[in-house]
Design a protein that fits this description.
This protein is an alpha+beta fold. Helix content is 13%, strand content 31%. A hairpin with a 2-residue loop joins strand 16 and strand 17 (290-297).
Length: 381
């Protein structure tokens, strides 16, 4: 399990001028005397390193003494751009937009119609899910029928629109945005979310001024926030089935059978829980191939910084800024008092397996959807 950015960014990597064999200090570092206060001393002379504009903090130390320095490894450099300077731009003018509307919410019908009329007047190709147009109220609106004729429709899990949509507009809450993310399992177009639902952590736009805000997006005059997703691969073992003399189908749990792998891109979190069973779940957690702990409790949450404000924070975890490259691991009602939420670097490989001594199976869900059972031998790398 590792993270993948929705949009790639680049910045100048850190460099160390002392690596050329000279004895000069690293480039861009300045020293001055100031007073600092700590528990051990009242004042000290220290070096105040140059502020890094990308992270709004001090630059990492790359020199150690007069001659030692950190070996440059371009493959290990993590590029992080200043969140305040991230702007949207288009290589070509956008022509298509996907409108995602919260299902079975009558209060969103009028905003949905107004937005679609506005987009068609701007000669945009509007994609709408077919089940949205199946609403009887929309079908009965004769004045909206001419606009519907210009829509391009699709069906979830059946039609691939990943290379047809330039940007997305969501009408609803955070759940609507998560659903929009699940439709794009590779790269995700820019998402514009209007706060018209119950929760609005991820929906910053107000629909009262939608015309001017949508126009700014089309013109490429808007700030963007990058959010990472988890790339999850669930490997399960298909057990060999046999029919006994009475015609009852049985499975042999010891047989290998064929292995089946399913891949998901998760914006919020992966939740492994005990499901309908009353026993505690026992789940082994591996980090880069090493067993770090066995989670004994109601389950475990593996979340992105975006998901740290959802189920994870309700389970006692801290909130992580979306620009921090990290993965949060949070136990759900752990039996051990020593297991607390931990943060690991983005890019590590996590593997979750059902423990050998587990008394029952477990269940896994991806952003609250695609819920399925985890049996012995299954793993989520």
């Amino acid at each position: 399990m590792e993270t993948g950015e929705q949009v790639g960014v680049e910045a100048v990597p850190y460099c160390c001028s002392a690596c050329d064999g000279g004895e000069t200090p690293a480039r861009g570092l300045a020293c001055r005397t100031r007073k600092t206060h700590s528990l051990s001393t009242s004042s000290a002379t220290t070096c105040d390193y140059r502020k890094n504009q990308s992270l709004h903090g001090t630059s990492p130390v790359t020199t150690f003494g007069p001659k030692a320095c950190m070996l440059q490894n371009p493959h290990a450099v993590m590029h992080i751009q200043d969140p305040a300077s991230q702007r949207l731009t288009w290589n070509k003018p956008p022509k298509s937009v996907l409108v995602i509307k919260k299902i079975q919410d009558a209060s969103l019908l009028q905003p949905f119609k107004e937005l679609c009329v506005f987009l068609t007047e701007k000669n945009m190709i509007v994609y709408v899910e077919r089940k949205v147009l199946a609403d009887p109220v929309i079908q009965a609106d004769e004045s909206f029928a001419a606009v519907i004729q210009r829509f391009c429709t699709f069906r979830e899990d059946l039609d691939d629109i990943s290379n047809r949509v330039d940007f997305i507009i969501c009408l609803g809450g955070d759940g609507t945005l998560l659903y929009a993310s699940s439709l794009f399992q590779k790269t995700v177009p820019p998402v514009m979310s209007f706060h018209l639902g119950s929760l609005g952590f991820l929906t910053p736009f107000n629909f009262d001024t939608y015309q001017s805000q949508v126009t700014q997006i089309i013109e490429g005059n808007a700030a963007i926030i990058l959010r990472s997703r988890l790339r999850v691969v669930k490997e399960s073992r298909e057990k060999n089935a046999r029919v006994d003399k009475k015609g009852i189908i049985k499975t042999n749990g010891d047989s290998e059978g064929s292995r089946k792998a399913m891949q998901y891109q998760v914006l919020n979190e992966v939740v492994v829980d005990r499901g309908p069973f009353s026993y505690l779940s026992n789940v082994d957690l591996f980090l880069d191939g090493h067993l770090i702990t066995t989670v004994q409790g109601d389950g475990v949450i593996v979340s992105t910084p975006t998901g740290s404000t959802a189920y994870a924070v309700a389970a006692g975890a801290s909130m992580i800024h979306p620009n921090v490259p990290a993965i949060m691991i949070t136990p759900i009602c752990p039996h051990s008092l020593s297991f607390r939420p931990i943060v690991v670097p983005a890019g590590v490989e996590l593997k979750i397996m059902l423990s050998r001594d587990s008394r029952n199976t477990a269940w896994v869900s991806f952003d609250g959807r695609k819920r399925q059972e985890i049996c012995h031998g299954d793993k989520i790398p």
